[in-house]
Amino acid sequence: MKSFLNPTDRKEIFERLSNVQPDSQRRWGRMTPHQMICHLNDSFKLPLGERSAGSVENLFTRTVMKWIALRAPLPWPHGVKTMPEMDQEVGGTPPGGFDRDRRELEKLIERFAEGQRNGEFAPHPFFGRMSDSDWQRWGYLHCDHHFRQFGV
Whole-angstrom Cα distance, residue 36 to residue 48? Predict the structure, then answer.
């Protein structure tokens, strides 16, 4: 299973990120490529404790949904509504400069992939507390999902 714990998988994600362009055509959803990059930035800031979001976790999302999302050999479905705090049209960070925001994402992924050295990652809004390996799997899958959204 691909994960940021594997340097080869991180390298793949960085290569795919370099192929995202401001005019990349989306295959589904409403986000622009730039909004997607800012969405990922906000999403990585959450487990690092630099951003917060409301919790909607419950027994089903902590167990069944988390297992399916992180372990099932299926791509994540399209159209799953994002948390308002991570939605660039609602409460997420608005796009600034494309190249600057992309560089920020690269740095956030690097920091995130190092793990949370001073304690645990913050809980996930749906899945609750997760192990470092679960977070690293989530990070890869979240990037993969949105990069596929833009054909990279």
Answer: 19
